[in-house]
C-alpha cells in the first residue's frame, strides 16, 4: 500500500506541477494580450488624431478654395449672368404688376408713357406729367 500511496503522491505532484505550468503559461498569454491590446489602443488613438488633423486640414483647405472662388472673376461672371436673367424674368412681371397696381390706385393719370412697347425713346413726359399735375391740383 505504501507503493500505491507513493505512486498517487507522485501523480498528484506531477499534476500540480502541470497545473502550475499551465497557469504560468496562461498568465504569460494574458500579459501578452494586455500588451498587444494597449499597443492597439495607442495606435487607434494616433490614427484618430491623424484623422482629425487631416479633416481639419481639409476643412481649412476647403474654406480657402471657397474664398479664392468668391474672389474669382468666374463667380463674378456667374453672378452677373444670374442677375441679368433674374432681372429679365422679374422685370416683366414685377414692372407690369407695379404699373397695374399704380393704375388701380390712381385711375386718372395717363400711365401709357410707361408701356414697354414705346421704343422710340420718348417717355411722353410732357403730356403725362401735365395731366398728372392737373389731377393733383384739382
Which oligomeric state applies?
A: single chain
- Biggest beta sheet attributes: none
**How does the overall form come out from the CA principal axes?**
rod-shaped
Strand segment tally: 0
SSE topology:
Layout: H1 2-70, H2 73-105, H3 125-137
Region (Disordered): 113-138
Describe the structure.
It is a single chain. The chain has 138 residues and is an all-alpha fold. The protein has two domains: 2-105; 106-138, no CATH class. It contains three helices and no strands. It has helices spanning 2-70, 73-105, 125-137. Residues 113-138 are annotated as: Disordered.
Summarize it.
With 138 residues, this protein is mainly alpha-helical.
Provide the descriptors you would attach to this structure in a database record.
rod-shaped; mainly alpha; disordered C terminus; 0% strand; 138 residues; 3 helices; single chain; 2 domains
Amino acid at each position: 500500500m505504501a507503493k500505491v500511496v507513493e505512486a498517487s503522491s507522485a501523480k498528484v505532484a506531477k499534476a500540480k506541477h502541470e497545473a502550475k505550468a499551465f497557469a504560468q503559461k496562461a498568465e504569460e498569454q494574458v500579459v501578452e494580450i494586455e500588451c498587444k491590446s494597449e499597443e492597439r489602443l495607442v495606435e487607434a488613438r494616433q490614427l484618430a488624431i491623424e484623422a482629425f488633423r487631416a479633416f481639419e486640414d481639409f476643412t481649412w483647405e476647403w474654406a480657402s478654395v471657397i474664398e479664392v472662388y468668391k474672389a474669382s472673376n468666374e463667380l463674378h461672371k456667374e453672378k452677373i449672368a444670374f442677375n441679368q436673367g433674374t432681372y429679365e424674368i422679374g422685370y416683366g412681371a414685377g414692372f407690369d404688376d407695379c404699373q397695374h397696381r399704380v393704375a388701380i390706385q390712381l385711375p386718372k393719370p395717363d400711365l401709357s408713357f410707361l408701356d414697354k412697347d414705346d421704343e422710340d425713346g420718348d417717355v411722353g413726359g410732357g403730356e403725362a406729367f401735365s395731366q398728372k399735375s392737373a389731377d393733383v391740383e384739382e
